[in-house]
Amino acid sequence: MQNDFTNTSELNEETEFPCEENNEELPEQRGITDTGIVEVQNAPYNIRVLVIIGQVEGHFILPPQNKTTKYEHIIPALVAIEQDMSIEGLLIILNTVGGDVEAGLAISELISGLSTPTVSIVVGGGHSIGVPLAVSARKSFIVPSATMTVHPVRMNGVMLGIPQTLSYFERMQERIICFVSRNSNIQPDRFKELMMKKDELVMDVGAVLDGETAVKEGIIDSLGGLSEAVNCLYSLIEEDKEAKANQEKEKEKEQ
Asked: Is 151 labeled as catalytic in the residue annotation?
């Protein structure tokens, strides 16, 4: 099979390549590389796309061959989105195996606290800490072929087998259960039941949910693809604009 590469011999010597001299990326390319955020052009509304892929990297740097989402990139990007009045909506696309619990929860809390309308869609997978990230948006979608893994909190490396360690895990697990149940339609007891389910994961406890089951369980709001998620975001933006207009009218009446 022949690769579809450009024949450099056909290029004119005077052809200019942006940022070739210092080997730097263009600003929009840098945004994709560092944060996964893409600015959408020629759309009905000014929205941003946030991509969370691979493994969510926390306080420890993962090996360079790992595909990661770095929380030190995502957090300031979310702060910038909240402050930028020109941004009308945020679409979050997830295909993640999970990762650092603290970093994942931090990002989830920030997304849920945005005043900007948000919609998430799980494609591929939204495993482990990807579950809180998926439900952190106002509305969540999942494609039929995607899966979500729900399991107890685990930690790699050496740890002390003492009651305090078990208590720490239990408290962290409760934080996840509370966040997911607060931002979705699943009850805390049912989510914990899925976490502790046996005979479904090899050498572990937990549950693997496909797209349809995740919606039936109440974790994800709707089954759908990209077009449904984008249209839902547009509807949220319109509702948000209408609510703000009504608030302004009420203030004018009071004055």
From this structure: yes
